[in-house]
Task: inverse folding
């Protein structure tokens, strides 16, 4: 899979648990933020889509945790997207910047609701490989 977008971020103290590593739930925030930044880079506003009656929603997320991130770690979140039937599937990896070790592999299946009904979106079709 060839990644088409990447976004750099840094772990904040409050995202870590008592073990000193990023709490698993925060990785969903990281990959969601990356998807929104990708849309923004393509001049697609998630809020405007909603205002136009188009809601992209997550149907399923699969995450495989490899190496934990710790407070202060900088990381790179990478993204690729493909249309598979009615779904828009985002393939997302996170790498620790200091050594480029794979931290997380995620697959996010999304679908679109057009005025409340399952459908496809020409705007999102245009961003798929």
Result:
């Amino acid at each position: 899979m060839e990644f088409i977008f990447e976004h750099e971020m840094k772990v904040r103290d409050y995202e870590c648990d008592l073990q000193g590593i990023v709490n698993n739930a925060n990785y969903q925030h990281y990959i969601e933020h990356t998807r929104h930044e990708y849309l923004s880079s393509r001049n697609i506003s998630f809020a405007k889509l909603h205002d136009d009656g188009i809601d992209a929603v997550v149907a399923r997320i699969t995450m495989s945790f490899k190496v934990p991130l710790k407070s202060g770690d900088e990381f790179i979140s990478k993204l690729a997207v493909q249309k598979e039937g009615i779904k828009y599937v985002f393939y997302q990896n996170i790498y620790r910047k200091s050594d480029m070790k794979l931290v997380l592999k995620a697959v996010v299946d999304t679908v679109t609701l057009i005025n409340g009904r399952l459908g496809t979106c020409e705007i999102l079709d245009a961003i798929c490989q």
